[in-house]
Write a structure and sequence with these properties.
By secondary structure, the chain is an alpha+beta fold. The protein has two domains: about 1-135, no CATH class; about 170-375, Heat Shock Protein 90. It has helices spanning about 1-35, 50-65, 70-90, 95-110, 110-130, 135-220, 220-265, 285-305, 340-355; strands at about 35-40, 40, 275-280, 310-320, 320-330, 355-360, 370-375. The longest helix has about 80 residues, at about 135-220. This is Sensor histidine kinase.
Length: about 375
Amino acid sequence: MTNKLEQRHHWTFCVAALGLWLSYGWPVWKEFSAGGTIRDVTVSPYFFIPFAVMGLAVLAAMTMKLRTNVHWALLSVQLAAVVAMTVIVPWAGISSFLVVIAWQVGMLTTPGKALSWIAFQNLAIIGTLAQSLNPDLCWVLTKSGALQLLFVFTAQALRREAEASRELTQANRELKAAQAIIANNVRDAERLRISRELHDAWGHELTALGLQLEIASNVAEPERANDHVLQAKGLARTLLGKVRDVVATLREAERCDLKTSLDALAKTVPTPTIHVAIAAGVQVDPEQAHALIRCAQEAVTNAVRHAQAENLWLQVTSDGDGVRLVARNDGQVRPKTTAPGSGLLGMRERLEGLGGKLAVRPGPDVGFTIDAWLPKRTPQLA
């Protein structure tokens, strides 16, 4: 819910920013069309080149998923466009474009860096206006500067709210995962109790089977011996059927536990949208299920905190002599030089401790993939 609210704020400002861009370009266009002047300067058609560049840079920065350094580059392009417009038309009102940049900076970085950028861009515009005859610097320092500060602090408040929401979502996700693991352990203990009860119950039939075979081996009459052998065969078939039923039920329970846990994990995160797919016939024991759930949890954390993805696909399949979990998102590509975090290192150690392995790789254009593999083991029936 909070993420949807954040997105709504973002798109509302996108529309407002483009509206401001057009509204401050309109008077310049009117004067240009009428052959008039602004601050005694004839409007040059070259004004509309940086004006268009500004609009395109704002649109790209607000609608595209970009790396941080690319975003800063677009902000620099926007500031350069505003400076160029001010050089061509030395009108203090053009500094209102800085409000758009201020909002983006406030959403992108910390308060200290944001305020430093605001000071820098205002000094750049003041220095540009100072070259004209009627600089009207008071307008820049008061109205435009105040609006920039207002938008920076508003953006910072929304940014802190979004970060708090992500941390709360992460804590809730970890709690849900812990609950799923505890539930698995409870079910494992219950299955152990049931298996012991069945063992005790089968003890009677096994004893009866042994007695029938013992009698058959000691009876001299062929007909009596044959009757006891047939009874023993019937008991053996009954016991074999019960064993198969219990094994099939417990194996199915293992598959359901993993899918239930992953589905529960998916429901705890509003964004990204998590798509869970588990192939038929996948068999894991409780320890492996625990490891795969932890890997999926780390993949979700990576998609939320680092990739800012919109979708995450979790796919569990049988792979030769093992089981494989592939987690792929469509978020930002992590730089190849970035060292793996403690979450990925812990995941690798967990898998290697079970004889498995982990591979992480960025997508060609977008996204990040985590590939976890565990060797096939006989699922525990307990």
